[in-house]
Sequence to fold (405 residues):
Amino acid sequence: MLELIFSALITLLPDYIYRTRYQGKQITLFTFWYELRWGITACVALTLTLITVIFYFHPIASNVISAFRTVSIISDRPGRVEEVYVSNDQKVKAGEPIFRLETSRQRAAAETARRRIVEIDAGLLLAKSELDAAEGNIQNAQGALLKARDELQRREELAQRNSTVVTPQELEALRATEKSREGLLDAARAQRDVVQARITSLLPAQRDRAEAELAQAEAEIKKATVLAGTDGTVRQFLLKPGDIVNPILRPAGILVPEESGRGRFVASFQQINAQVIQVGMIAEITCASLPLTVIPMKVTQVQDVITTGQFRPTDQLIELQDRLRPGTVLAILEVLYEDQANEIPRGSSCVGVAYTSHAARIESGEISGISALLMRLVDSMGIANAIVIRAQALVLPIRAIVFPG
Fold:
């Protein structure tokens, strides 16, 4: 409408004055088109041009949302709730417990692991005693072997001096006794090695395994208590002791982080404005949750992909005709001045407009001459959308209350 009025003032109105005052024609309803056809045509062309330029360089976003993050309150494993520490709509700090699952099986496993460690420690003391006994058996076997060898050597010397004193059968018996003593010594040493292996390898390995089982059981007990990962408010939390929770099928509730989405809005612009929307642009928004208020913003981030182009590998090829809705250019808006949007509830739906400015390029000399003049005219046309956003701020309460839907 503003574009039409402006175009009519510089095209249709001069044509009407010229026809009536200087040519003396009487323009009626029936001769309106014939007499003012040039002015009407110029007015329509100029209006369309202005609308195109204004909405291209100063795009309007009809969907601006105060997006915020939510965190699902879930446990690492399914189980029955034993104790609940918070209530719905309660504020929590990071690390505070929210609820605890039943852990009788994990506590029993932890107690079993502790008793196993005590048992292994007792077995280690017993093995050390067995090692001392094995060392004593080795010494006894060594003494018996030494005695048998001495006896065999003495008998062999007697047999060499006088063969009639010691019979061959007696020598064979002594040799057999020596072999038997050597076998006993080897057996004692093997028994000692077995006991040493138990002390140095088997029992420590069993103890390490029991300690690992204890640590696992204690970790399961610790994970049974679900903690708040960040500061926030608990929402949709109606959990009671005895309820069953499942990390896949049934979360316990939602945690809304305290600062998530504060002063930060997500706006979607048409694809035609992809080359215009730039980081650092000034924007304005108005929200139904804060009527009659226009909040200055700035563009801090522009998503360089459009969501309609995404795909996930499946067993079917993509058919582009199935994606009829064109995607939009996503931009992140943040408040230009701190605490201006604190009164806007997170999740509010708003409308906004962004303004193109070529002032920096003109001052730096990158744009000069006629181009600089045209760019200044384009920048000044943003006042039309500024008036539009303020008109929407006035109309939003009426449209929401008087004409809902």
Notes: Residues 134 and 192 are 5 Å apart (CA to CA). The first strand starts at residue 60 and ends at 65. Helices lie at 2-22, 32-35, 37-57, 104-161, 168-223, 359-363, 369-380, 382-401. The chain is about 50% helix and 20% strand.
